[in-house]
């Protein structure tokens, strides 16, 4: 301990208390970290720490930006599912029919409806022969709109038809022949 004059006996360090003890502990920790190659006092290098199994786990809260742990949009999930399973072409074909008014516009959609899509040829039925003629003149613009909406290569050409002509064949006991034209004298 100390002698009567307040001097420390030789070979013993003074007993540290309070802030001096904390400083000594910090210096020892820095020296130990320096010896092991880690830097101390510069913050954490990453927000991850090792688990006992060797896996990594994030600590703390996620930030304001998007994170892998955040809920995903349903459309994004279904799109990636369709892509992974090879359904992209079928989904694109379905978009032509499902979003017809949005793809070609309300004016054209109110006068024409898509019927079938086979071998990249879209069959469209117009409500009148005048609209069928108009759609044939706009065929390249309609194809451009479809390719922009669902992707290139889904629809390569259009087959536009007008309304079906009325049938003169009526009843069970129909007689073959020219039909009503032969009675007009």
UniProtKB/TrEMBL annotation:
InterPro entries: DciA-like, UPF0232_actinobac. Residues 47-59 have a biased composition (Basic residues). Coiled coil: none annotated. It comes from Nocardia ninae NBRC 108245. This is UPF0232 protein NN4_68410. Residues 1-73, 163-185 are annotated as: Disordered. HAMAP family: UPF0232 (MF_00630). It comes from the Bacteria. Belongs to the UPF0232 family. NCBIfam families: PRK03195.1. Residues 12-31 have a biased composition (Basic and acidic residues).
């Amino acid at each position: 301990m100390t002698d009567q004059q307040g001097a420390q006996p030789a070979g013993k360090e003074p007993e540290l208390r309070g802030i001096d003890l904390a400083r000594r502990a910090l210096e020892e920790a820095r020296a130990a970290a320096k010896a092991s190659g880690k830097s101390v006092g510069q913050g954490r290098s990453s927000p991850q720490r090792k688990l006992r199994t060797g896996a990594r786990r994030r600590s703390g809260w996620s930030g304001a930006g998007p994170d892998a742990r955040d809920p995903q949009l349903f459309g994004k999930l279904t799109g990636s599912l369709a892509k992974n399973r090879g359904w992209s072409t079928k989904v694109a074909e379905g978009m032509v029919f499902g979003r017809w008014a949005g793809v070609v516009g309300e004016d054209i959609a109110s006068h024409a409806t898509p019927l079938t899509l086979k071998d990249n040829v879209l069959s469209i039925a117009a409500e009148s022969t005048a609209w069928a003629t108009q759609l044939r003149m706009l065929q390249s613009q309609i194809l451009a709109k479809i390719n922009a909406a669902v992707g290139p290569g889904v629809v390569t050409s259009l087959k536009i038809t007008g309304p079906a002509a009325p049938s003169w064949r009526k009843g069970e006991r129909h007689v073959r022949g020219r039909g009503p034209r032969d009675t007009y004298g």
